[in-house]
Amino acid sequence: xxxxxxxxxxxxxxxxxxxxxxxxxxxxxxxxxxxxxxxxxxxxxxxxxxxxxxxxxxxxxxxxxxxxxxxxx
Length: 73
Description:
Largest sheet: none
Number of helices: 2
Shape: elongated
Transmembrane segments: 7-35, 47-68
Number of domains: 1
Mean pLDDT: 88
Strand content: under 5%
Structural class: mainly alpha
Order of helices and strands: HH
Helix content: over 70%
Low-confidence stretches: none
Oligomer: single chain
Keywords: Membrane, Transmembrane, Transmembrane helix
Number of strands: 0
Distance between the termini: 16 Å
């Protein structure tokens, strides 16, 4: 059971890292090619938290299905 909790935490961590890296890449790309001076705003934090949580829930469904299938066999 503790393995499932660790997998859930890893799923949420991975989803937040995905959205932070996407947002950071876009900001660096735009700043480099368009010369903009972009800062991390509260809107960006909200984007990462909301979308990261939603993707984390999707990952948790996959983790649960994989965990149940592995333990049933």
